[in-house]
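Researcher: Let's try something more involved. This one mixes different molecule types, so please make sure each is placed in the same coordinate frame as the others.
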Amino acid sequence: MITFETISYFRERLQVLSEYKRGVYAGADTEIRNSFKGVPIEQVRQNRDMILMRDDAIAIKLRLPDHRQRLSKKDGYRLIYLVSMVEERVAFLDIYPKRGPLQQLDIADEELYRLLAMYVSEGDSNQLEPYEI
Amino acid sequence: MEVATPGGYNVSQLARLNRELDGLYELIYDDFGTITAEDYAVFGGQLELLVKTLKSLYDDCRRSSERRAFRDEVERLGANYSALYELNSDIVNFRIKAPRNVELQAMMSQAAKTINR
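Model: All components are placed in one shared frame. Result:
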């Protein structure tokens, strides 16, 4: 069974999206769950959106649709996650929309560094929290 | 690919451009995982120029007050610009710079230890 966990930054970002005015991004949480529900770990690991690879872990920028706004994967959300190649363990690091008032066009390598550093730090201090799919 | 110039395009031309941009995006995205610095040296300059040109065209079209069908295609153009900008950025950041970024690789190594313990 796959274990999903989150860093505090991811949780804050998801909350901002969920509470944004007029419910523009209210579907983000649902899109995440729909993308992982019942999906085998091999599929979670083997994704063509891989942005950083090692033999024992992979960082992925997953393209998610936004059915609520009728947006395809290309135009929906971006979910940044780390997945283990050894354990059935996934860590959500960031989520952002590609369209609308909070849109983000891309993510730089420096930003990925910052997310990974937060993951290591919060892992060391037991601040990671589970995410129920 | 047809080049649309500000002031000299109509709805059908913009629609055709958008279809071609959709195809170009899929073509590059399909190969994202295998693109090397050598590959990018061949097409990167043209891709960057295309992205800049699309931004300029999109900004120009957005100021236009044409009918609904035109505005829909302009919105698609904006999405295509955003998609190609992201793809180009991902190639530069993660296919070319990241493998040479010692600090990022070291942090990824630490993160791998954390997620595997």
